[in-house]
């Protein structure tokens, strides 16, 4: 999803689980002291067997997403700037639904582990299909989006494992002014570091 796609939509009330500030996804100010893999706008907890891939925009060469894979499941993470008092997950869901339907996907909005999420069945190959789940959580001046693929797209136990990975993510919004819906900048990881309190 490009930033332009969601530019025309107005933000609305925030969408987040009631315990977001304790169970995550956390803001940098809320994060406990522990080792993290620093990706700039996001910090992720290293896990045994986890593989990480950075998605790079071909034209600009900037990192636009981080995909974390555990076994047969993966979650792609993207952080977006948001207004202080309003959320952007609802309008983003509307844009994603439209975009997925244009690709021939069957899309439904369901109540997931962290609030409203999208579930989509995307055509793959000649007769195949791919199940994905897209979730988002509004935090203080940011929104974290997760695209869950692989086995977790249809298997509840795997889905719960990916939710744990998503909730362990720390969002580093920074103090610099950013237009709402801009992607938080990501970078190639440095060695795991301890988050500051």
Automatic annotation (TrEMBL):
UniProt-listed InterPro entries: DUF3710 (IPR022183)
Acidic residues: bias regions: 1-10
Residue stretches of biased makeup (Basic and acidic residues): 11-23
Region (Disordered): 1-34, 176-197
A Pfam family assignment: DUF3710
Superkingdom of the organism of origin: Bacteria
Name of the molecule in the record: DUF3710 domain-containing protein
UniProt source species: Candidatus Agrococcus pullicola
């Amino acid at each position: 999803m490009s930033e332009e796609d969601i530019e025309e939509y107005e933000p609305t009330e925030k969408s987040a689980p009631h315990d977001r500030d304790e169970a995550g996804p956390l803001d940098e100010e809320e994060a406990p002291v522990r080792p993290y893999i620093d990706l700039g706008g996001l910090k992720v907890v290293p896990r045994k067997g986890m593989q990480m891939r950075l998605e790079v925009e071909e034209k600009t060469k900037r990192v636009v997403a981080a995909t974390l894979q555990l076994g047969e499941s993966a979650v792609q993470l993207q952080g977006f700037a948001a207004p202080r008092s309003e959320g952007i997950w609802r309008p983003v869901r509307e844009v994603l639904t439209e975009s997925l339907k244009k690709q021939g996907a069957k899309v439904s909005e369901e109540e997931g582990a962290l609030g409203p999420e999208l579930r989509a069945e995307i055509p793959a190959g000649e007769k195949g299909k791919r199940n994905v789940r897209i979730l988002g959580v509004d935090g203080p001046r940011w929104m974290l989006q997760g695209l869950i693929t692989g086995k977790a797209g249809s298997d509840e136990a795997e889905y719960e494992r990916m939710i744990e990975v998503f909730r362990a993510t720390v969002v580093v919004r920074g103090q610099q002014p950013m237009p709402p819906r801009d992607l938080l900048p990501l970078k190639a990881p440095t060695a795991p570091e301890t988050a500051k309190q």
